[in-house]
């Protein structure tokens, strides 16, 4: 017999009755019934109930065990009485009558309970993550993550992609976030950067002729954390393809994403391929977001012209000054009490708006605070623009375009939730396409890349040389699921002449472009294929499939919101000798200077 186990704690069934077996695991739960002591013993695979009789010489030892102590038990498998069967456990038809017990490791008192889903402070959970990972839900999430990655890898290989690895120590790149820098010992005063993404390398692989590449790539960004973004590091399904159009990229990755979600969705509905394509401008108008949640059926309408020159002075005056008006339908909202509308108005004021105008459609007409300003002709225009019917309400947002779009999007989300309109048990995908190539930084008044700087502009060099930069669209696209952006992607700029001009518009001199991207530019001068790709986020995919709202629930060892690893105490100080070896001197802010000095 094996010295530690013959079976796992999730393996034994009724057909094993009468067998002598050995199990090892953690003490998950203890129940003392006087003359009987029940131990639930847990390992990675499951839980088995073990029983010691009060007359057993092992009884006192078992009584003294703390929860989460590691033990090895030998005994006979016996069927449970019908009334004692636990249908919630795969091993619930049997139990182990203990004949031998060895304590492998005694646990100290626990800072958090493993056998409970009770809430504990984030600091406690992260500082004792090894215990947190033993808890059923989190343990299950991490296993799900492993299975999802294995499924993605299999599907990508079957689709003809070659898995390749790209460097971790590289040079800085303008990917939209801060780099993590690594000082070089042998090159004083110079630094490597951890890759924000393998962007340049995967394009170089296309130039090298590999045609279809992928990897489960670690990426590093020195940015703040949030619920759907882990600070410090994350993983993505990075892939690139040669001799492709945008539609070719979509056609390659849609079966992978659909297949993975269908495999792990637990019966939930998944958007079939081809996924809907929504241009960026339409997404902002119709959904108020470039990450539209298509489970919500509400579509926002542009009704600026309805109120242009109307008797509703607040809107008419604003429209004359360049504002827009967005209408957000509330299907069936006419049935809601007045308090529903008052609360929405108060919520809108908390969002920074003066309020939320609305009309309720009933009996072929309209009622509500601004209904008297909406004559029959304008009401007909509103109904035509929104598709609203009797029993619905229309809520209005009036402001400058960018502000109005975002607020209307938040109203849409709130109405979808409040009115119970959001489709349950569904994963709804879409592509958001035709992003602007550039945007204006309102603080500096400078033109900047709005997305990926290596994207091909629509219209190519001719557009860059003759069009207003703020009107140029790029072959850039995002894949979105349930309102969560899974990735950004693009058809790449593979021509040096177009790249020089694209970067010049964003304020980069030719010399600077060559200094920062010389390796890729040089490669492109020797024959680069048209190519494109994307990089869906692994963490976000698993978060959606696990039904979690915080990405830390699907990462084994995440950092906290301040990008600290509380378990390993990183970042931490290093010795003066190590700093000297790296040719570094510290210039730390004083405690009262307002700098982010952290231990």
Supply the helix-strand structural class.
Answer: alpha+beta
Mean of pLDDT: 94
Q: How far do the termini sit from each other? A: 51 Å
Strand content: 15-25%
How much helix is in the residues? 25-40%
Strands, count = 24
Identify the overall geometry: globular
Largest sheet: 8 strands, mixed
- Rg result: 30 Å
What ranges have pLDDT less than 50 throughout 5 or more consecutive residues?
A: none
Question: Spatial order of the strands in the main sheet?
Answer: 6-9-10-24-23-22-19-12
Number of helices: 17
Compact overview of the structure:
36% of the residues are buried. This protein is 29% helix and 24% strand.
Describe the structure.
The protein is built from 17 helices and 24 strands. It is α+β, with helices and mostly antiparallel strands and 599 residues long. The strands form 6 sheets. It has an 8-stranded mixed β-sheet with strand order 6-9-10-24-23-22-19-12, sandwiched between helices. Strands 1-2-3-5-4 form a 5-stranded mixed β-barrel. Helix 4 (136-158) runs antiparallel to helix 6 (246-264). The protein is globular. The model has no long low-confidence stretch (mean pLDDT 94).
Question: Which descriptors would you attach to this protein?
Answer:
29% helix; alpha+beta; single chain; 24% strand; 599 residues
Task: Give the helices and strands, then pairings.
Elements lengths: L19 E13 L3 E8 L2 E8 L5 H5 L6 E10 L14 E12 L16 H6 L1 H4 L3 H23 L3 E2 L17 E3 L7 E3 L5 H9 L4 E10 L10 E11 L3 H19 L4 E2 L6 E3 H7 L14 E2 L1 H4 L5 H8 L3 E7 L7 H13 L6 E6 L2 E3 L8 H11 L6 E7 L1 H18 L7 E2 L1 E5 L4 E3 L6 E3 L10 H7 L9 E6 L2 E8 L4 H10 L4 H15 L6 E4 L3 H9 L29 H6 L18
Parallel strand pairs: 3-5, 6-9, 11-18, 12-19
Antiparallel strand pairs: 1-2, 1-4, 2-3, 4-5, 7-8, 9-10, 10-24, 13-14, 14-17, 15-16, 15-17, 19-22, 20-21, 22-23, 23-24
Helix pairs in contact: 4-6, 4-16, 5-15, 13-14, 14-15
